[in-house]
Prior knowledge:
By secondary structure, the protein is of the alpha+beta class. Helix content is about 40%, strand content about 25%. The strands form seven sheets. A five-stranded antiparallel beta sheet has the order 4-3-2-1-5. It has a five-stranded mixed beta sheet with strand order 9-15-14-11-10, with helices on both faces. Strand 21 and strand 22 form a beta hairpin. The longest helix is centred in the last third of the chain and has 35 residues, at about 555-590.
Amino acid sequence: MHLLYEEGGDIKVATVQSASGSGDTESWQATSLSGKKIKLKAKEVWLRFEKPEPQALMDEASTLAKEIDLSFLWDCAPDEEFSLVDVALEYFGAGANILQQTALAIALQSAPVFFRRKGRGRFQRAPLEQLQAGLAAIERKQKESEQQAIWQKELVCGVFPEALASQASQLLFSPDKNTSAYKAFIAACTESGESPAQLMIRCKAIDSPLDYHQGMFLKAHFPGGSAHDASLVVDQAVFEQAIAGLPVAKVIAFSIDDAGTTEIDDALSVASIDGGGHRIGIHIAAPGLVITKDDPLDQAARSRMSTVYFPGDKITMLPDAVIGQFSLDEGAPRPALSIYVDLDSAGVVDKDSLQLRAEMVPMGSNLRLENLEHQVTEESLVDTQAQFSYRQELSVLWNAAKLLHAGRQEQRVVNGLRPEKLGVIDPNALARDFHFQIQEHDGVQRVDITARQRGSILDTIVAEWMIYCNSASGRLLADHGLPGIFRTQKGWGPLRTRMQTTPGPHEGLGLDYYAWCTSPLRRYSDLVNQSQLLAIAKHGVMAKMVAPFPPRDAALMGIAADFESCYQAYGEYQDRLEKYWCLRWIGQEALPKQVFVRHLKEGMSRLEPIPLHLSVPELATHPRMTRAEVMIDDVDLLQLSAGVRVLHIVTPEVIASDVSAT
């Protein structure tokens, strides 16, 4: 004997092996068509039959079920509940056999729009309103399925459907996976064997891999777009009122930046004092004079946390108009928060001479590294005949910078670290800064990558005096009992360097305190610290009573954590786009050709001409700085990868001679 039953919504057949009980308590040990041993009770069985064979029955019944007119069956069925056998006799006639009954069972079970299941082998037709709604839904789904198939076909053929043009960005970066558009898009990717980004590029929905990398970043960090709200301005009257009471400093300041810098945050000044010493001024742009805690500009800056830098462009933390009001541009006095410190005749800093002032600072010049760096040498700084701007001031700053650096190195040694050398320290010339310039030629973008050696005298002057400014700012905050965003480094491990709101040492720099404050136009941490320092400059010992952030302020702790994660994400994006343009440079320079790499560690190597790091497993066992000639091919601008094949490894003797030549 064979039994017809339902399992998981499907109609199935099993062959009885043994039976027990009788009537409603009867049960059977049976074997399903798949060979599975099962136990069935009387209340679970729909029909019993001897012939035909189960597999033949199911095959024929499945075919016959597709021919059953469900609409006609619904019309014929009574309003009240009915059994499978009753409706089979009504539909097929008095001679309805087991095949027809099974086919009807399959049809009824698979048609919940027409019939509701009420129990074992029993059904009731759906109300007319529900039937109409269900049929409309089925029709709508069928149309969606047909449209999805059309879209999929177009995408596979390399044509992006016009109806989906406005959804391209959403489909790629933040799709609703339940829509027909997304299902068609993913089905097309599966059929073509491409990634979503590859398909988008082939269909010309996005122009290039660069659009993909930028779109991913903007969707994650600037979902509303990177442009500032046009209403975010500082009214000129408000600006003039904020600076009206500021004294004008009796110095002439100058900044030192590269040619591409438009947000000039910091400047320096040197003035002679009695006894043969000098007073050094470190002047920081002061947007904190008009940006107050939780005002619209502050909220905008907090939402961004930092200016985002990447080759060819940047996304500024503050609106351009506000930057223009506070950038330390040459030619006029500019509002600044200044730290002054005295040097004796030998260039040693008098720590007790520290002063903090909010003032208007006359800006004499914006010096550019590209124009001046080659002229500034140890010899030219002491040569009274040397013809370059601010020679005497730079000489004073340089001598003191060397002493500041030496003092920090002594503390590094105390902290158990090796001292760092001053100036150009990498004999293999890899310690460089790179400038990426993106230009368009005949509709095609081209990148020029130029390098400059780190550690010049001007680099050191700026670095040491900004480090001193950040250290002095941290000291002022600590001495006045004010919280800030301190950058600390202590101990070992991945979390040894972090941002926190309480003072702490920075062992790597050899400092007791270190609080970023020199870039308030570009970093929110610096803007927050400036607001605290302005309270000190204006109110002295009463600063704690009026500072925007009191001790143990929970909001400040959240800002410190958010800034750190955001700043890291922006840095990773900059690295990603620099790698993209390095790979583009390889293509435009007619590579793959033989180029040289230097092995760094664990199989990672860097190309000598540009800052591109690539995996070269063949060099994993070789010493650091091993030089090798390689062939580069298979550049993938979406995955930001390339194949590297080592041609030969340069011998140590060749490396040594090459280094001496550089």
